[in-house]
Sequence to fold (162 residues):
Amino acid sequence: MVETSLASGDVLEPVRQHPRDPSYDVDVGPGWRQLVFECHQVVVAEFPEYELLAVKQKWGALAFQAFPRPWKPGGNWTDAEQSRLHAVTDAFADRSEGICERCAAEGSLRESRRVHLVLCDRYSFVRADLAAEAAAAARKAELREAAQVPARAGHITAPTDP
Ligand SMILES: [Zn+2]
Fold:
C-alpha cells in the first residue's frame, strides 16, 4: 500500500491556510485530496477569508465545512453568502460520491460496510478480503477461548467488535 503523507508542500497546503483551529488537519483519504483542493479553489475565489471548520467524510460523501468569513459574535456574513458557500460544498459532496476515497478511481458508495465509504472495485475487494480474514481470526479466537473456559451457567459471550 502506498504511504501517503499530509506533510507540507502537498496539494492541501493552501487549504491549511484557512482553519479555525490551527491544529486541525484535513481528514479524508488520499483519493479525495485533489477534490478537496478543487473545492478550496472555488470557495476561496468567492470567499478569500473563508474559515475552515472541517474536511471529512460524512455518510460516504465529502463534507467540506466552512464559514464564508472568520466567525464573529453576531455574525460576519449574510444568509445569501452562507447559501452560496453551501451550494459549492454540496456540489463537491455530490462529486465525491463517484470517486474512490482511497485511490481516486471511479467508485460508488459501498453501503454493506459498517462505515460507509466510496470505493472503487479494487479497494472494495481488498478491504472485503481483510474484513473476512479479521472475522475468521476473531471467530477462531472465540472458539479457542470457549474451549479453555469451562462453560458457566448463564454465561453468554457477546460478539466482540472486530
Ligand atoms: Zn480505489
Notes: The pocket of zinc ion is lined by residues 31, 100, 102-103, 105, 107, 119-120, 122-123 (CB under 6 Å). The longest strand covers residues 51-58. Helices lie at 33-46, 79-96, 121-148.
